[in-house]
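Q: Sequence in, structure out?
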Amino acid sequence: MRYYVIGDDDTVLGFSLVGVSGRAVHTESEAENAFSEVLENREYGIILITKDAADLIRERVDRFLFSESFPLIVEISSPDGSVRDLKELVNDAIGVAL
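A: Exactly. Output:
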């Protein structure tokens, strides 16, 4: 079971440094496509999605959160861009220190 992250460029880059695959999204259609594709791949058991990315497709994320049990969807805060906050985000989300 693997992790996957959907969010802004900095978040996806930060998680990629510890081996987590992901996709940066900026529009509703990009978020929708990324979410759909990762749900189709049963290899990913935990999907991390930033609040900003989830807000782009809020109705779909909430519908999935309240009706499905796999994969686990974890909504994380969107970083403000500072390196320290991004490190803390990675440490808190998956327990890996950068």
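Residues 41 and 71 are 10 Å apart (CA to CA).
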